[in-house]
Design brief:
- The protein has eight helices and no strands.
- It is an all-alpha fold and 262 residues long.
- The chain folds into two domains: 83 residues; 168 residues, no CATH class.
- Helix 7 packs across helix 8.
- The structure holds zinc ion.
């Protein structure tokens, strides 16, 4: 039964991942989310259904447009990662009651928005408000829904404190460095992370994000793929660590405490 759910949710993730690619592109060129058929950004040829099957089309076409042979911008990796995270969420959160089902549905929408933000930031070093603001609203809905549905109104306190705390910390950081390194989008992302994670989860996420980003930066500099002064989008690391901490935060804290004999 659980495996059936995991497989179905993964397939949903595959389709959503395909939509994420389209949304990221349409946000960038400023077209409406829903209007208009998909087309190749290079030759403007309209794409048929057979060109739009997640992953399969990309493989069948060798990563090139059927009509003009330009490399396809939409990455099958985005589709596969989305499918993987959807499946992992279904398996780990195993929603069986109405309450967990509602929260699970909300989480999938928030997760989708997080993936859009990460992909957009990785490509264009920007976290668009058009996604960020709805994501923050939805995270607020999640926090309130969780407190109301589980009859624990005090559960709202942690996420709100964490959101204000990290939002303020990032604001100070951006002001102090005059926007080099981190930007205004990161402030809102900090607020969003706090809402999603609460205080403990947030600490886990920051710990992971800073360590992994530093490690990647060192590897890129040593391998001469980047210079010390080059800008690096920090958003994808923050988003990735948010997803990990949301799903496994408690386990990571317990593991870390055991490791240190606490
Ligand atoms: Zn083309």
């Amino acid at each position: 039964m659980l495996w059936m759910t995991v497989i179905l949710v993964s397939l949903l993730g595959l389709m959503i991942g395909s939509a994420v690619n389209a949304i990221v592109w349409r946000l960038y060129v400023g077209r409406s989310w829903v209007k208009g058929r998909s087309m190749c950004p290079e030759c403007k040829h309209q794409l048929a259904a057979k060109d739009l099957v997640p992953v399969v089309s990309w493989l069948a076409l060798g990563g090139k447009c059927r009509y003009c042979k330009a490399p396809i911008q939409d990455s099958p990796i985005v589709e596969l990662v989305t499918a993987g995270l959807f499946g992992l969420s279904a398996w780990w959160l195993a929603p069986v009651t109405v309450v967990t089902g509602v929260l699970f549905g909300l989480w999938l929408v928030i997760l989708t928005m997080l993936i859009v933000l990460a992909v957009y930031d990785a490509r264009w070093m920007l976290l668009p408000d058009k996604v960020m603001v709805p994501a923050i609203v939805l995270a607020l809905v999640y926090v309130v829904a969780q407190a109301v549905l589980t009859h624990h109104p005090l559960m709202m306190r942690g996420p709100l404190l964490a959101a204000l705390g990290l939002g303020t910390a990032f604001y100070v950081l951006v002001a102090a460095t005059k926007g080099r390194g981190m930007g205004g989008g990161d402030i809102k992302l900090g607020f969003l992370m706090g809402l999603i994670l609460g205080i403990k989860g947030l600490l886990v996420a920051l710990f992971i994000a800073f360590d992994v980003a530093a490690l990647v930066a060192v590897i890129l500099i040593i391998s001469h793929r980047k210079k010390r002064k080059d800008q690096m989008a920090f958003g994808p690391y923050l988003v990735g660590s948010t997803v990990v901490a949301f799903l496994f935060g408690q386990q990571i804290v317990a593991w870390y405490l055991r490791l240190n004999g606490l």
